[in-house]
Specification:
Structural class: alpha/beta
Largest sheet: 5 strands, mixed
Radius of gyration: 21 Å
Strand content: 15-25%
Strand order of the largest sheet: 3-5-4-6-7
Length: 254
């Protein structure tokens, strides 16, 4: 018996974006040590764009996603300009249907379209103090600030990070708080090095920071805590336990 598989199947196969969600996205995050700010992808089946963008929006929501299409009539193998009537079914697009009065040049000078200060941000551990100082200046004075120590190569962080992001960006306990995510190292070896500066940084505990993921409350933007309050014990537990511990910790901080 012979089987024929249509080349069009990849345009509807959910395994296509899933492969990039599980493989390409995490690989880019590891290779850039979490410092990626923009992701630009050409659009063929759109599997790369859809899978990677879903991963980035979970682990680092401020990453900007840009999809590219060639000009009309371009002959680039594997990349095409899709007509509106024929888009891959795996392509997931959002839009806002709005009338004329929803925005025009008369509004552009008022500041109404100015982006708000970022409530959530990511940094590399070597730039932590500088990033933290700048981040505090951009926040409302009374906004509580939290730090999540994480790494893209850490399985426990892969479990914890999407849950923490959801709690801080949703309507729950962390809705009015700011979250700074700190990447502790490009590799496991870098993090495990006894000379790592966090090992002796007593801000994160009497013996420094010893495990990831770890969540810390740093006080408010204008009144930082000299000794941050730290939540550890997020390793090797399931998603529901992570959610319970993080939400309980946030409620304790008021």
């Amino acid at each position: 018996m012979q089987f024929a598989i249509s080349s069009q199947a990849r345009f509807a196969n959910q395994d296509n974006p899933q492969a990039h969600y599980e493989g390409t996205g995490p690989e880019i995050m590891r290779q850039t040590a979490g410092q990626i700010t923009h992701f630009v992808s050409s659009m063929g089946t759109t599997g790369t764009s859809m899978g990677c963008s879903r991963y980035f929006k979970e682990v680092k929501p401020e990453v900007e996603i840009v999809g590219l299409q060639p000009a009309e009539g371009a002959q680039i193998p594997g990349i095409r300009r899709w007509p509106k009537e024929y888009l891959p079914s795996i392509f997931d697009e959002e839009g806002i249907f709005a009338g004329m009065s929803s925005g025009g040049d008369r509004y552009l000078s008022t500041g109404v379209f100015d982006p708000p200060p970022p409530a959530h941000h990511s940094c590399y551990y070597k730039n932590l103090d500088l990033t933290l100082s700048q981040h505090r200046k951009a926040l409302p004075e009374d906004m509580p600030l939290f730090m999540l120590f994480t790494a893209p190569w850490c399985p426990d962080c892969t479990t914890t990070l999407p849950i923490v992001n959801e709690i801080f960006t949703g309507q729950g306990a962390g809705a009015n708080f700011s979250l700074l995510r700190c990447i502790v190292g490009k590799t496991r070896e870098e993090w495990k090095d006894p000379r790592h500066p966090f090992r002796s940084d007593t801000r994160w505990g009497p013996n420094g920071l010893s495990e990831i993921p770890t969540l810390a409350c740093l006080g408010t933007a204008s009144s930082p805590l000299v000794q941050p309050r730290v939540l550890s014990g997020l390793e090797k537990i399931d998603r529901e336990q992570v959610r319970f511990k993080v939400e309980s910790f946030l409620k304790e901080q008021g």
